[in-house]
Amino acid sequence: MFLSKFLNASDHPYLYGPGGRKLNNKPISGMTIKSLKHHTALQPLFIIMAGGIVFVVSYCFRLASKTTDINWSKSKDLGDHMGYYNNRQFKWFNPRGADYSKMSEDRPQYRD
Questions:
Q1: Distance (Å, rounded) from C-alpha 64 to C-alpha 56?
Q2: 15: which of 9, 32, 90, 97 is 20 to 30 A away, CA to CA?
Q3: What pTM was estimated for this model as a whole?
Q4: Tell me, what DSSP letter sits at residue 2?
Q5: Distance (Å, rounded) from C-alpha 35 to C-alpha 29?
Q6: Among residues 92, 91, 73, which one has the least CA distance to residue 82?
Q7: pLDDT tens for residues 5-29?
Q8: Does the CA dihedral 11-15-20-25 come out positive or negative?
């Protein structure tokens, strides 16, 4: 009985009648393809925002797959996981031009 009362309450004229919520909540201008073609000033905004979203998602994927903060291999010894970056560049950019192919030879080996 409670469920039927609850479901019948959604048939109130407040929601569907004249001046009701359903009629007032139309799609926002610029959110459909038809209205986006009409509002040409919004088109560059959508392109820039889409590019930003793609960049953020790709960077989050890179952080999840390449950094040493996340261990996807589930190895018990973290040294094996961290050893992936021996003689490799961890950062995206190398402004000072450091040679990463010989960097791991200069640091101390804690396992020996």
A1: 12
A2: 32
A3: 0.53
A4: H
A5: 6
A6: 73
A7: 777 766 666 677 777 777 777 778 7
A8: negative
Query: What does the angle CA 55 – CA 85 – CA 112 come to, to the nearest 5 degrees?
Result: 160
- Nearest Cα neighbor of 98 from 85, 107, 108, 88 is 88
Q: Is 52 exposed, middle or buried (0-12, 13-18, 19+ CB in 10 A)?
A: exposed
Residue for token pair 């080996």: 109
Place of tokens 């609850």: 6
Task: List the structure tokens of 9.
Answer: 């309450």
* CA–CA distances in Å: residue 70 to residues 7, 29, 87, 101, 109: 47, 42, 20, 24, 23
Residue where the block lists tokens 């960077």: 59
